TrEMBL record:
GO terms assigned for molecular function: electron transfer activity; heme binding; metal ion binding
The protein's name: Cytochrome c domain-containing protein
Originating species: Sphingomonas panacis
InterPro entries the record matches: Cyt_c-like_dom, Cyt_c-like_dom_sf, Cyt_c_1A/1B
Keywords from the UniProt entry: Electron transport, Heme, Iron, Metal-binding, Transport
Pfam annotation, one family: Cytochrom_C
SUPFAM superfamilies: Cytochrome c
Length: 156
């Protein structure tokens, strides 16, 4: 009985384990640390949750949502010429930084109340970091923020 449970548990752990082993605390780490540990391939898998509404390759058009090729560094709510953005997103101003994408993907309706991106958000901080890295590698390639290092920390 105990042996069967152990066997079942071992199988589940093996089957459910993510490809990359990570410290679970990373999910709530600061964005720079998450981005440094993030993986664009895992981000491509996360992007399958976005792909019903978004494309990410160069020249691919809008779907229910605007095309996302090169979105990191692009103006918020203005990047795709043909897409009919909501006034809520258009009014945000500025460009998509890593931080803003992290906030948007945590809770789109909190970031831009009135947006019509019908997506609840990605609660796991590493899912967000992975997908942001994936987006960055598709047309933006901006330098990632420097991860916090213990030697940079103030002494007091
Ligand atoms: C059900 C459809 C849908 C899903 C799923 C979805 N989005 Fe969106 N997305 C939209 C719509 C619609 C907009 C435009 C919102 C507006 O104008 O207020 C948008 C806008 C965006 C923008 C802003 C683009 C710009 O040009 O300013 C980003 C970035 C974005 N989505 C990323 C994502 C990511 C990453 C995911 C998956 C984790 C995702 N979206 C899932 C529909 C969706």
């Amino acid at each position: 009985m105990i042996r069967t449970s152990i066997l079942a548990l071992t199988c589940c752990v093996a089957a459910c384990a993510p490809a990359v082993k990570r410290d679970p605390h990373l999910s709530s780490a600061p964005l720079a640390a998450r981005l440094a540990a993030a993986d664009a391939n895992s981000g491509a898998a996360v992007f399958s949750r976005c792909a019903a509404c978004h494309t990410v390759t160069q020249g691919a058009g809008d779907r229910g949502g605007p095309a996302l090729y090169g979105v990191v560094g692009r103006p918020v709510g203005h990047g795709s010429d043909r897409f009919n953005y909501t006034a809520a997103l258009e009014a945000v101003g500025g460009v998509w930084t890593f931080e803003r994408l992290d906030a948007w993907l945590t809770d789109p309706r909190h970031f831009a109340p009135g947006t019509n991106m019908m997506f609840a958000g990605l609660p796991d901080g590493m899912d967000r970091a992975d997908v942001i890295r994936f987006l960055n590698e598709n047309g933006s390639n901006l330098p990632l923020p420097a991860p916090p290092s213990p030697s940079n920390r103030p002494t007091r």
